[in-house]
Sequence to fold (605 residues):
Amino acid sequence: MDLFRMLGGGARFDKKRFKEDIEVFQPKAVSTGLNADAEAALATELDFFKNKKPASKKAPAKKNEKKAKSDSDSEDDEDNSGESSGEDQTHEGDESEEDDESGSDDDEEEENEEEEEESIGFADKEQLALFRNHLKIKVYGTDIPNPFRSFEGLGKQYQVEPYLQRNILASGFKKPTPIQMQAIPVILHGRDIMAMAPTGSGKTMAFVLPILHDLKGPEKVGYRAVIISPTRELATQASIYINAKESPNSSGSIFNQIKKLSVGRKFKVCMLTKATAATQGQAPHLRQKYDILISTPLRLVHAIQQEKMELDQYVSHKLLEQGFLEQTDEIFAACSHPSLQKSLFSATLPSGVEALANTFMRSPIRIVIGSKNAATETINQKLIYCGSEEGKLIAIRQQIQGGLKPPVLIFVQSIERAKELFHELIYDGINVDVIHSERTKAQRDKIVEGFRQGKIWVLIATELMARGVDFKGVNLVINYDFPQTVQSYIHRIGRTGRAGRSGEAITYFTNEDQTYLKSIVNVMRESGCEVADWMLEMKKPSKNQKKNLRQRPLGRSSINTMSSYDKKKIAHKRDIIANSKKRKAGGPVNNGESKKKSKVESSKA
Ligand SMILES: Nc1ncnc2c1ncn2[C@@H]1O[C@H](COP(=O)(O)OP(=O)(O)OP(=O)(O)O)[C@@H](O)[C@H]1O
Fold:
């Protein structure tokens, strides 16, 4: 269909006469499950929206009620971007083709044939619409390929290489997730795509699979696909994929997903680091030829500026964030291939970012799974009022004493506060650690691995860990500090409740945070969580208030319950240990450094 439209460029084909020729180019209809309904197509563990619950159960009805209410009440800016679940679904074929001037019978017949073509794999357009509706797949754009229902169906329809089929099975993936069902055919048709789907819903495979399919096999020609990931942790989780204790599908890092899906083909994948960038700085004929490049935006831009990168083929673009927009321009400027294909995947997409993405995409297809900027429905979200900063520390201690079910991830708003909270909790008899960008890469990798293996029960983290990192078993996320944006909230809590599992997210709020509470309340309501009536009646923050918070976190008094005497004692002990180590190593000893430091600390407190 697409191929004909592209080649036709305004010309009209007599599709009856050239039926056989068309069939040669036409992807084959999915033969499986033609009459099966969407519910059957979805495995229970992937039923993110709990569509499989019996209709008689009360909860979903309540959700719908709440949701209907929210549509009239949704935020009008980037938090919920005026695009509530009430937005109309634009199915393929809804957009009119060239005007029919004659209105002849022939044209009518042709129209019917086009309708048939467009509902490949489905009995008719109505069945297709029902299928999408049921899985909460919304699509916007023109000539939108149909979703596929099963991996076998995908294989037949798009002639997906058997090695990819085998690797999907070996990953333990029985059914595609809704984002995979709709996004994979779109990318395979060569279309630009903007896709939003809940955290933990399988977006990584939705773009990795079509890339591998398109690249066919390794070639020593240079980069043919570039994947940009917001953090190094998401891109690599390098120490994890070699961990034999992990089940085969336990890590969803981009590198790891490529590795698992490409077994049998020796694709060369470069994770851009300082070291690999240095080797790419050699003369072009000496450079290693990789097929796929994975990088964080800043590192890639740096390499481009240093002329260490030649990017001229095919780009798949996982995530684009507001702060990275300038870099994105530079990256696209370096990717000069005429048929460059761009993909953008995220759990959240502020409307400003979407508008910008629209400027560099070619008639993109937009896919939204569920409600835009809502959280995964498998997460039980709670808000806890703590009054003040001291109240938060009391609340977390109570939580620990009441018994935490590890692994638990705690988010705070700054490195300083991460360190402070760590120093508080380390005396509470739990295995706690802290991760932030001041820790070395080796330390970060080790911590992530320890957390996965259950050696670390509670991990205190900054925003560094909020996006994309796939910890399947996280039971609880605590937002110790109220998040600065709705997007941050959704990504942070999305570290739990992944791949259809259930999880819990608790957000502490103080008097100062109350101004911003309504934004989170809206996400909770959109995702079907219970919210107290008084919260629903709260005023939402103004655009300016939100902008200010996005730019700067709220000032908070430091996390600190220890007396200065206790702190001095601990610091003194630390010095004794450090000095004894240094003495053993024959180095200079510290004379009261900690004492001075503790004085500063106590005067601050
Ligand atoms: N079809 C599938 N069946 C079962 N599990 C799947 C399937 N596809 C992906 N997964 C698993 O689901 C988990 C989450 O996938 P992934 O990390 O791609 O989510 P995501 O949507 O990118 O999340 P985030 O927005 O947080 O980055 C991973 O562990 C992955 O292996």
User: Anything to note?
Assistant: DSSP finds 25 helices and 13 strands in the chain. The longest helix spans residues 564-585. The pocket of adenosine-5'-triphosphate is lined by residues 46, 173, 175-177, 180, 197, 199-205, 249, 252, 347, 468, 470, 472, 494, 498-499 (CB under 6 Å). The first strand starts at residue 137 and ends at 140.
